[in-house]
Amino acid sequence: LLLLVLLGMIDFGFLFQRYEVVTNAAREGARVAVLPGYGLPQVQARVQNYLTAAGLTATAPPATMTIGTQTLPGGLVLSTATVNVQYPSQFAFIGPIAAMMGGTGWGTITLQANSTMRIESGSLRVPCRNCGIKQRTPNTQTRRSHLHKRAAKGW
């Protein structure tokens, strides 16, 4: 019984390690997806390279990418990219032991992770609160420089 508990803890440790790799692969894919000029083939290649470099070599379905929008509380709408990664993970000890005892369902589990990031592009333009001129980003430094230019021109 103690040996079974120990093997279960080892299997869970391997499962957790694989889940962390899948989560990081989704993040890496999302980082590529939000860059200008990159698409699904580059995202899938980056995810697969990350999984392979981490030692996860089982055949996994290709990563998927979804482009969407997210509205912030202030009304600002951001374009986002979501990357979904799935990986089949096999139990090394619990699955075979359960099968010897007539159990099923402990062989393989599919690990899944999603990562969503804001798309980095020049298309995001926010209107100035004072004059309505669209600015590239809504940060304070850009707003100050825009207002400074406005004051210098005598608007």
Strand-residue fraction?
15-25%
Gap between N and C termini, in Å?
81 Å
Order of helices and strands: HHEEHEEEH
Gyration radius from CA atoms, angstroms: 24 Å
Total number of helical segments?
A: 4
Number of DSSP strand runs: 5
Overall average residue pLDDT: 81
Apparent shape: elongated
Amount of helix: 40-55%
Report low-confidence residues grouped into runs of 5 or more.
136-144
Structural class: alpha+beta
Q: Main β-sheet: number of strands, strand sense, barrel status?
A: 3 strands, antiparallel
Order of strands, widest sheet: 1-2-3
Which key features would you list for this structure?
3-stranded antiparallel beta sheet, two-stranded antiparallel sheet, 5 strands, single chain, 155 residues, alpha+beta, 24% strand, 4 helices
Write the layout of secondary structure elements.
Blueprint: H1 2-33, H2 40-53, E1 64-71, E2 77-90, H3 94-100, E3 108-118, E4 126-127, E5 134-135, H4 140-152
Helix pairs in contact: 1-2
Describe this structure in words.
With 155 residues, the chain is an alpha+beta fold. It has helices at residues 2-33, 40-53, 94-100, 140-152; strands at residues 64-71, 77-90, 108-118, 126-127, 134-135. The strands form two sheets. Strands 1-2-3 form a three-stranded antiparallel beta sheet. It has a two-stranded antiparallel sheet with strand order 4-5. Helix 1 (2-33) packs antiparallel against helix 2. The longest helix has 32 residues, at 2-33. The relative contact order is 0.15.
